[in-house]
Amino acid sequence: MSVNKHQKQCETSKGPLSGIKIIDCTTVIAGPLCTQILADQGAEVIKIEPLEGDLIRNLGPILAPGLSATFLSLSRNKKSLALDLSKRESQELIAKLCQDADVFICNSRPGVMARHGLDFEALKQHNAKLVYAAITGFGDSGPMAEQRAYDPIIQALSGMASLQEPTQLLGQTICDKTTGLTACQAVTAALLQAERSGQGQQVEISMLEAAIGFLACDAFWPIAAAGRELNYPDFKRVYIPWKTQDGEIVLVILADKEFAGLTEEFQVQHLLEDPRFNSMPNRFAHWDELVDTLKPVFLTQSSEDILKRLWRADVPAAPINTMEQLTTDKQVLASGMIDYSEHSIAGQYTRVAMAANFSLQDNIPYQEAPSLGQHSHEVLTHAGLDEDEIHSLIQNDICR
Prior knowledge:
- The chain has 400 residues and is α/β, with parallel strands linked by helices.
- It contains 18 helices and 13 strands.
- The chain has helices spanning 30-40, 69-74, 88-97, 112-115, 120-123, 151-157, 174-197, 207-215, 221-224, 235-238, 256-265, 280-285, 287-299, 303-312, 323-326, 330-335, 376-382, 387-395; strands at 21-25, 44-49, 62-64, 67-68, 78-82, 103-107, 131-136, 201-206, 242-243, 248-251, 317-319, 338-343, 347-352.
- The strands form four sheets. Strands 5-2-1-6-7-8 form a six-stranded parallel β-sheet, with helices on both faces.
């Protein structure tokens, strides 16, 4: 299996964030996804792990001891420094590392970092330009602020789970991921302001707020329309799988021109004259009847044939891929997003490449995910510690 254009081994990245240094005290998915994107874009990310390693080292398929597929993906292009954060020496080391860092990022419950002496007020004394990103579950106020949060908890509280019928949790960590993306954008915005003003700041991102922001604006249509006529599409009814002879597809026929194109291609132009279907509002009002009318047309042909006809009629449509089919889909392969990487310990594995492409970025960085504490000596040496000091930290179970 060949390695595609997204995997070029390179010692340094010339990405847009080249020269930015990030101290990453995050764990699980939301924070690590944020810093993975920043690392892909060229930032130097020093991942602070507990002595036993990040939880995600054992989350998902384990390709080698302490190297899950999740960890391999979210920790690429990062350095690993293993520290016991409960120890005063570790806290002092992190403060020292922040002296020449651009970003410090953590995800923990409110007050945890303050108890370690690593809150914004403490760290800004060492670096006035530091961007301090704090990811929490619910924010720092409110009745649930001190509670632990995982993705399904946020799916429930944000209303996301209720959008499915029947109520259902999505089988994906979508709230973690939207939080990671939100945090990534917020960090880069704060970096830009720090560059312009010379001042750092604290950036607060909660999983709950990120999820609610993600659901805007269409999920809030029922609230916005309270007391008014429901003249908008119910996407739960409109966006549905359509069965074909050999699979399922999705198509969108919201606009009149899309519906007209479909009726002409499949020779059902009489539907254009039907008062139930002759306008978008009417089609929405009689959507179930329209589906019943079109179902037999699609069941007699293969997905490939139907898609060709829909595309010819300029109707948006796509197959419903399984994750296995994703790796062979021609459009997905053309995007370069499916990346086959070789890890020196875990071997070859499939990962998702960087989604954004920068024309000025000469090389897409790829450094394999590190072993636990792989870069501890390198990072501490660069911070000014000598061999005896590093040895003492290791001997006293402060560092690994």
